[in-house]
């Protein structure tokens, strides 16, 4: 074991002195949670702001329909009275986003019981807030129309319900809390990414980098088993992956209380126990990542080539997680044998505060550890070949 | 003692070594002399246990390199083609790393490092990181690293490459001292004057084959000329029309 610990210690010290390694290992870990919390706060503020805000629009010819206007004013609206020859100019010129046009013959038609057509001038290529105003105003007007229609039926001794055989009712569950949860679901993706990024440069530096600097050959003339040499390197790479995740979790722990969850009626607390669970769950994945990166980097002839290969390698286990998150993958035993996906699914459950089945957790850890061992063994085989010298 | 018998090694289509045989004795300095691409480095790499021969035998202190590479690695000190130091480690740390890999006890290791720092005159720079070292400083550190376990066999691959006059002289002194200590020194070179100044025995290699094996004086006689450079050119087959 002497060789293992000597190589391990050397790689750790050597890489702690490398600014490039440190930046790539820890920048995502530190900035990730800060970015994440910022995004949460932004989305929540927006969601809260929207549901409270009044419907804004301008009215041309308000004097022709005083009752309608007074009804609209009683709703959550903000009405501007304007005069214009062509109401289209108001919208196209950008003075107003939405204009309601009431014709001078409104009262006359109303008296006669004819249909009154009100024009809503808007620009559908405009932003979502304009569209929301339109939908709300449309709703208010048709509501008003229904009230008038119902009154007319009553006056004629008819039950208004005969005119509305079918109605719909909407229940929008996309509360601000739900939106926040969507963002929360991206956390596992970040955590897996951090695990891979932590060991990224170490895996290159200890393999392709060592070869490029010409230190690989003298190293291989030392009386140390290739297995110990490779394990020392993989272990050092793992430690950086672990540190990277640890920094991420600590950063998250500090940043999350800044999110105003209580304002959307949600209680999310990330406890030390949860973080510890995530850390334990991720350990096999950390070793897996280190071994995978080391094997692939060993094939590269130069530092640059290794960088290219590893960038692709990091995408393979992380990108599908975004898809899995959209598809809302269920936590099943079958999923647990897939490295990276199993950890992401379990992390997601842990963050939501759901209890994780020990069988699931054990399966995920055990299978990933098996894959990690196979990869590490492959790395040892690679180092036994003289081709490793390039 | 180093023995090489009918050694062969190809890289793909290229036959780098085509049946080389020679010996290097303890207490003597043996040079592998030959032009670039003659097969010197390949032979030395096989002796250093980092490359495997296709055929033939290479023995260090009677141990076959392919049979027990671990035992051989404890018996040899290797100075590779380029120094191959870790730039973010100091000179001392570079040396200590290999000392630990050789499993030398900490106290003995510190003593040994102090002795080498003095012998190689490295006091001024050995505690700095090697990133900005001159070629001479790098070679010194790499040599100290190769000698940390006091190996009986020292293999040097073109050690004077890129060294200035003073550094070359310092290196020669060190090699002479190794000889006086009874070590078996084997080094490769393509520079005649250097071989003339240092070596007891010369093995001339050309196109992967041994062209001459004997003492410096025998080489002069064999070639029939006092001019060593001329002798070398003839031996290595460089004089033949292309």
Overall radius of gyration of chain A: 32 Å
Give unreliable regions of chain A as ranges.
none
Q: Under CATH, the topology of chain B is which?
A: Rossmann fold
Largest interface: chains, residues each: A-B, 24 and 33 residues
Shape verdict of chain B: globular
User: What topology, given as strand order, has the largest sheet of chain A?
Assistant: 2-1-3-4
Cα Rg of chain B: 18 Å
Low-pLDDT stretches of chain B are none
Determine the CATH superfamily of chain B. P-loop containing nucleotide triphosphate hydrolases
Protein architecture, described:
The complex is a heterodimer of chains A (390) and B (242). Chain A contains 16 helices and four strands. Chain A has helices spanning 2-16, 19-52, 66-74, 87-92, 106-112, 128-155, 176-184, 187-198, 200-212, 216-220, 226-255, 272-299, 303-327, 333-336, 341-351, 358-384; strands at residues 55-60, 77-82, 98-101, 119-122. The radius of gyration of chain A is 32 Å and the shape is elongated. The model of chain A has no long low-confidence stretch (mean pLDDT 86). Chain A has a four-stranded mixed β-sheet with strand order 2-1-3-4. In chain A, helix 3 links the parallel strand 1 (55-60) and strand 2 (77-82). In chain A, helix 11 runs antiparallel to helix 12 and helix 12 crosses helix 13. Chain A is mainly alpha-helical and 390 residues long. Chain A folds into two domains: 2-46 and 177-389, no CATH class; 53-170, 3-Layer(aba) Sandwich (abc type-2 transporter like fold), CATH 3.40.1710. Chain B is of the alpha/beta class and 242 residues long. Chain B has a single domain, classed as Rossmann fold (3-Layer(aba) Sandwich). In chain B, 38% of the residues lie in helices and 26% in strands. Chain B is built from nine helices and ten strands. Chain B has helices at residues 40-47, 69-75, 91-101, 106-119, 135-147, 165-180, 192-198, 216-223, 228-235, and strands spanning 2-11, 14-24, 29-33, 55-60, 63-64, 76-79, 153-157, 184-189, 201-206, 209-215. In chain B, the strands form two sheets. Chain B has a six-stranded mixed β-sheet, sandwiched between helices. Chain B has a four-stranded antiparallel β-sheet with strand order 2-1-4-5, covered by helices on one side. The longest helix of chain B has 16 residues, at 165-180. Chain B is globular. The model of chain B has no long low-confidence stretch (mean pLDDT 89). Classes of the chains: A mainly alpha (390), B alpha/beta (242). The interface between A and B is medium-sized, with 24 and 33 residues.
């Amino acid at each position: 074991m002497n060789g293992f610990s000597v190589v391990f210690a050397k790689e750790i010290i050597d890489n702690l002195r490398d600014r490039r390694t440190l930046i790539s290992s820890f920048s995502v870990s530190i900035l990730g949670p800060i970015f994440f919390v910022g995004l949460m706060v932004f989305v929540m503020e927006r969601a809260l702001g929207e549901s409270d805000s009044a419907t804004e629009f301008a009215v041309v010819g308000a004097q022709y329909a005083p009752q309608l206007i007074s009804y609209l004013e009683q709703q959550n609206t903000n009405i501007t009275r304007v005069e214009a020859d062509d109401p289209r100019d108001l919208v196209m010129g950008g003075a107003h986003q939405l204009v309601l046009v009431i014709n001078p013959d409104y009262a006359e038609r109303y008296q006669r019981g004819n249909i009154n057509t009100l024009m809503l001038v808007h620009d559908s290529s405009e932003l979502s807030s304009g569209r929301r105003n339109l939908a709300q105003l449309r709703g208010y007007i048709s509501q008003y129309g229904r009230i008038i229609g119902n009154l007319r039926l009553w006056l004629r001794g008819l039950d208004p319900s005969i005119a509305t055989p079918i109605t719909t009712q909407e229940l929008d569950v996309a509360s601000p809390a739900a939106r926040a949860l969507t963002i929360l679901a991206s956390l596992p993706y970040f955590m897996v990414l951090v695990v891979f990024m932590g060991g990224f440069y170490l895996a290159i530096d200890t393999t392709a980098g060592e070869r490029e600097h010409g230190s690989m050959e003298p190293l291989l003339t030392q009386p140390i088993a290739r297995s110990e040499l490779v394990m020392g390197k993989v272990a050092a790479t793992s430690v950086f992956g672990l540190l990277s995740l640890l920094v991420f979790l600590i950063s998250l722990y500090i940043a999350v209380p800044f999110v105003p969850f209580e304002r959307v009626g949600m209680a999310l607390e990330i406890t030390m126990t949860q973080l510890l669970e995530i850390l334990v769950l991720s350990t096999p994945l950390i070793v897996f990542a280190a071994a995978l990166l080391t094997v692939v980097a060993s094939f590269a002839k130069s530092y640059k080539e290794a960088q290219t290969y590893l960038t692709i390698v990091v995408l393979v286990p992380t990108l599908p997680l975004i898809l899995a998150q959209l598809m809302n993958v269920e936590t099943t035993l079958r999923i647990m044998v897939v490295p990276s996906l199993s950890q992401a699914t379990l992390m997601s459950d842990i963050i939501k505060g759901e209890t994780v089945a020990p069988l699931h957790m054990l399966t995920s850890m055990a299978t990933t550890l098996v894959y990690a061992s196979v990869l590490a063994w492959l790395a040892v085989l690679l180092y036994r070949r003289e081709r490793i010298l390039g | 003692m180093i023995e090489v018998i009918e050694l062969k090694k190809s890289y793909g289509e290229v036959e780098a070594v085509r049946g080389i045989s020679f010996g290097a004795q303890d207490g003597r300095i043996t040079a592998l002399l030959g032009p670039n691409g003659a097969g010197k480095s390949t032979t030395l790499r096989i002796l250093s246990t980092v490359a495997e021969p296709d055929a033939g035998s290479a023995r260090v202190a009677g141990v076959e390199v392919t049979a027990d590479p671990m035992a051989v690695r404890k018996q040899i000190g290797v100075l590779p083609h380029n120094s191959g130091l870790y730039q973010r480690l100091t000179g001392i740390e570079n040396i200590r790393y290999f000392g630990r890999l050789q499993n030398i006890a900490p106290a003995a290791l510190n003593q040994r490092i102090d002795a080498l720092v003095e012998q190689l005159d490295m006091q001024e720079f050995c505690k700095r990181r090697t990133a900005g070292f001159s070629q001479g400083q790098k070679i010194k550190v790499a040599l100290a690293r190769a000698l940390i376990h006091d190996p009986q066999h020292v293999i040097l691959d073109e050690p004077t490459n890129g060294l200035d006059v003073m550094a070359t002289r310092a290196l020669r002194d060190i090699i002479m001292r190794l000889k006086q200590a009874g070590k078996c020194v084997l080094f490769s070179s393509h520079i005649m004057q250097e071989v003339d100044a240092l070596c007891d025995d010369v093995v001339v290699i050309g196109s992967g084959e041994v062209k001459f094996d004997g003492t410096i004086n025998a080489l002069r006689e064999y070639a029939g000329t006092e001019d060593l450079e001329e002798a070398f050119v003839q031996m290595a087959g460089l004089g033949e029309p292309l």
